[in-house]
Amino acid sequence: MSETALLPVLTQPTLIGAVPGFGPTTGGNSVLLLGANLGGATSVTFAGTPATIVSQDLFGLLITVVAPPHAAGNVPVVVTTAAGASNPANYTYVGPVVPAPPSVLAFSPPSGPTAGGTPFTIVGTNLTGASVTFDGVPAVGVNVIAGVVLTGVTPPHAAGNVAVVVTTASGSASVAGGYTYVGLPLPTAVSITPAVGAAVGGTPIAIIGTNLAGATVTIGGVPATGVVVDVTGTVLAAVTPAGAVGNAEVVVTTPAGSVTVSGGFTYV
Q1: Is the pLDDT score of 6 beyond 90?
Q2: pTM of the model
Q3: Most-buried pick from 9, 38, 201, 214 (CB within 10 A)?
Q4: What is the pLDDT of residue 98?
Q5: Would you say 57 and 117 are in contact if contact means Cβ atoms under 8 Å apart?
Q6: Per residue in 63-87, pLDDT tens?
């Protein structure tokens, strides 16, 4: 009998499959390979990249490996022994799920005062974790409900139309038409009654005009007292301060600006 006849016959390894048949692109997960004649494996590769062999069973049926990192997609897994390389088994690398970017379906209200502080609502999709800017200035009090409704409060800004942008980790979406900041209307003063009063002051006066809400009044640069504006913003009542005899300028001032009352007030 020759020495060659005494040598063991090596059988090529056969792979049946990988369990699990998928894993993360970062690798590092355990994969169990099933097959036959896998004993004495010298290498296991995933698309040509070596995996770490953790254990092999005594019967050549099982190999446990740690998958290497790889780009997303299907790759062949091959076991190599002294008898050669196995048939490839399929393994799928799965990339991280990237959330969809936000979308805006509705926005309300479309305008508000330059002072800010206007509550707004955005209806859309994928709004979880979103922030909102008005011309780059962050809105405050942003709250998201179920990823589809976002509420917040507008920041202050100069008058005019500005871009409104909703941003999440997945991207941004702009509000169609943006948001229009509206400045407060300037006050007007049509008349003052009476237009004449005692120099010692104390004369009740009424100024007729528009947009008088929040107004103050000076006569000759001295503030009038007891200023009250009706709910329509068209009638202002006040009491004159003391002043020098003669005509004095009357100025009505609101947060939007000032107006001078024609004819002023005459102290006698």
Answers
A1: no
A2: 0.57
A3: 38
A4: 82
A5: no
A6: 999 999 999 999 999 999 999 999 9
**Token pair belonging to 26:** 């970062």
Residue 187 burial (C-beta neighbours within 10 Å; 0-12, 13-18, 19+): buried
- Give the pLDDT confidence of 99-136 residue by residue, as tens digits: 899 999 999 999 999 989 999 999 999 999 999 999 99
Q: Provide the token pair at 133.
A: 């800017």
pLDDT (tens digit, 9 = 90+) per residue, 178-218?
A: 999 998 889 999 999 999 999 999 999 999 999 999 999 99
Contacts of 248 (CB under 8 A, 6+ apart): 219, 220, 264, 265, 266, 267
Q: Buried b / exposed e across 219-250, counting CB within 10 Å, b at 16+?
A: bbeeebeebebeeebbebebebbebeeeebeb
Which two three-digit tokens encode residue 82?
């002294």
Domains of the chain in start order, with CATH, are 11-94 (2.60.40.10), 103-182 (2.60.40.10), 188-267 (2.60.40.10)
- 21-41 residue pLDDT tens: 999 999 999 999 999 999 999
Please say whether the beta carbons of 204 and 196 come within 8 A. Answer: no
Residues 18, 19, 23: CA angle, nearest 5 degrees = 95
